Amino acid sequence: MTKTNIFDYFEATAKRLSDKLALSDGKNAVTFGQWFDYAERIGSAIIEATGRVIRRPVLVFVDRRIETLVGFMGVVASGNFYVPIDCKMPAERVRHIINVLDPVAALTLSDADDAILGEAGCKCTSFRISELWMHDTNRVALADVRGGLIDLDPVYCIFTSGSTGVPKGVLIPHRGMVDLGRWILGRFDLAEDDVIGNQAPFYFDGSVKDICICIMAGATMHIIQKKCFAFPKLLGQFLNDKKVTSIWWATSAVILTANSGILESNPPKHIRFVTFGGEAMPAKQLSQWRRAVPNAVYVNLYGPTEFSVDSTYYVVDRDFAEGESVPIGKHCENKCVLVLNEDNKPVAVNEPGELCMRGSGLALGYYNNKARTDEVFVQNPLHDLYSDKIYRTGDIVKYNERGELLFVSRKDFQIKHMGNRIELGEIETAVDSISGIVSAACIYDKPGEKIVLYYVTADGLDRDIINLIKDKIPKYMFPNVCFRLPKMPYNANGKIDRQELKRAYEAT
């Protein structure tokens, strides 16, 4: 049978590897056979409660527990799509998501989740995930629902706010998720003997890679608890005790691990792949990893939520000097990238332009938000001969002489300061290259016409930033104000929280 959706792959793996460990969170664990059985029970309960509605949103409260992933697949079994809700998400944000979605059901983990639903005014049917594990399986209803689904039907919806601060629900079809998994497994030769160390939160699209590898290859996924990143010695021990072979982490987590010292004291002994994405990887921390774990393959992954997680990749094949940008590489298989200038023409080498994408990874748009969808999911401007939608990422990139894509900045990180057009990311790269700098981020005070730099140092001491970057960037790019922080704020997706930095600056 041709596999057209992620549940087809899930079923095939569950039959092939029924007794193999699939998921573990340190407290509980399930085999592939158990996971599939629980998912069908949950799917049956949702079908029964909703009257067999399909292609509708179901909220799933998530934490670092196996119940989260059991809930996801239960929703998929019901013919609907799952919407991850962080169990620590403020009620106001949950209320906004509910107003956008009008969900048909919700799956919760605790009384606290139920309370959040109540505060947010959710009227849909809600279930406790663990209580549905004993629900009767209705195989006739499950087969009937699955028989009517196609690869363009939605599988999940992840809310992302980006630079606007207003959450948007990015709707991804089965085709996008399956295509991502096929590429990862084929390109990196992953199989059932691989062991995944999951770091990405399940409300973050980076976790979709872990889920695809687990379900499609039959690899075991160990969910790493937050305490391991708070106490890095535990992380080093965890990676070795579980014999983790592959990590698909946010760049911030890879940097944190490098800065912690555990790569020298207790380097991972079994890792074959170290992949990172979400933000630019500084050459300094990448070099630390490569020295400590020299036999691993290092991959820089890039892609927006709106294009099924990853769109380009770069397999690290050379050393980089501190301050040098690590490329985001070339397009993933079956995905096409376009780099367009302000005239919507393809750029020349070293000419910055907006990165646009077309192909099977394209999202279905923003759920219940046609106006915003139509702004960024547009007709390919290179022709008007047939419908050919692309996604405009808002990211500025350029090709180097090797034909590799380099991330330059965000459109909204590009400023006009004292008559000069400046990419704030270029300033950050220069500061990141300074010895002892752990992280750096710039914001722009437009009314005051000031470039504001925030930075964190390893020893907690101030640096003479201007003197240390004067030979790296032009004078007109020097920050006007510099603040050292004890630690950099990060948002739920593991990216530097620039909105929080702006609020902090405005409060000074």
Supply the CATH superfamily name of the domain at 418-506.
Answer: ANL, C-terminal domain
Per DSSP, what share of the residues sits in E-state strands of 2 or more residues?
25-35%
Number of helices: 18
Low-confidence stretches: none
Question: Main β-sheet, in a few words?
Answer: 5 strands, mixed
The mean pLDDT is: 94
Structural class: alpha/beta
Helix content: 25-40%
**Tally of extended strands?**
26
CA radius of gyration: 23 Å
How is the largest sheet built, in terms of strand order? 11-12-13-14-15
CATH architecture of the domain at 418-506: 2-Layer Sandwich
Task: Choose one word for the global shape.
Answer: globular
Topology-level CATH name of the domain at 418-506: GMP Synthetase, Chain A, domain 3
What does this protein look like?
- Helix 2 crosses helix 3 (66-77).
- The longest helix has 19 residues, at 32-50.
- Among the domains are: 334-409, Luciferase, domain 3, CATH 2.30.38; 418-506, 2-Layer Sandwich (GMP Synthetase, Chain A, domain 3), CATH 3.30.300.
- The protein is 33% helix and 26% strand.
- With 508 residues, the chain is an alpha/beta fold.
- The chain contains 18 helices and 26 strands.
- A 5-stranded mixed β-sheet has the order 11-12-13-14-15. Strands 16, 17, 19, 20 and 21 form a 5-stranded antiparallel β-sheet that branches.
